[in-house]
Amino acid sequence: RWLFNQAVCTLYAFCGVLFGLCSLTSLTVLSTVCCLKVCYPAYGRCWDVLLLLLCVWAYALMFATAPLAEWGSYGPEPYGTACCITWKASSREATLYIIALFIFCYLLPCLLILISYSLILWTVRVSRRAVRQH
């Protein structure tokens, strides 16, 4: 069972969501920047790393703080040993938060990563053919 009070549960869940979202968002930005550098070299030089990191953290912070602002909630997991997002939505707002989290923090990053690496592979394949012909 969860051994601490609700405040520690909320902090634990907040940190888990924040760092998890930062991780996936960082991978998404990394794959997108790699795609730009490989597939569109003219646009690959104009990204400031510090600005990208700030955007990653702001994006993750926006979704991680939403349950603190009563859009969704944090609570014990079903087995009660840890805390995370309360997945069993008890209100319309909580359901909308879970849907937004799924779309903007899972589906969209995964699609961007998939598209980025697909474009990189396609560009490498086309470049290899061009080199073979010469």
TrEMBL record:
Task: Kindly give the InterPro entries that the UniProt entry links to this protein.
Answer: GPCR_opsins (IPR050125), GPCR_Rhodpsn (IPR000276), GPCR_Rhodpsn_7TM (IPR017452)
Regarding the membrane, this protein is recorded as: Multi-pass membrane protein
Gene Ontology terms, MF aspect = G protein-coupled receptor activity
Name where it's found.
Membrane
List where the protein spans the membrane. Answer: 12-36, 48-69, 96-124
Q: Which residues form the G-protein coupled receptors family 1 profile domain?
A: 1-134
The primary site where this protein sits is membrane
Q: What Gene Ontology cellular component terms go with this record?
A: membrane
Entry keyword set: G-protein coupled receptor, Membrane, Receptor, Transducer, Transmembrane, Transmembrane helix
PANTHER family per record: OPSIN (PTHR24240)
Task: Give the protein name, as stated in the record.
Answer: OPN5 protein
Source species: Ceyx cyanopectus (Indigo-banded kingfisher)
User: What gene name is given for the protein in this entry?
Assistant: Opn5_1
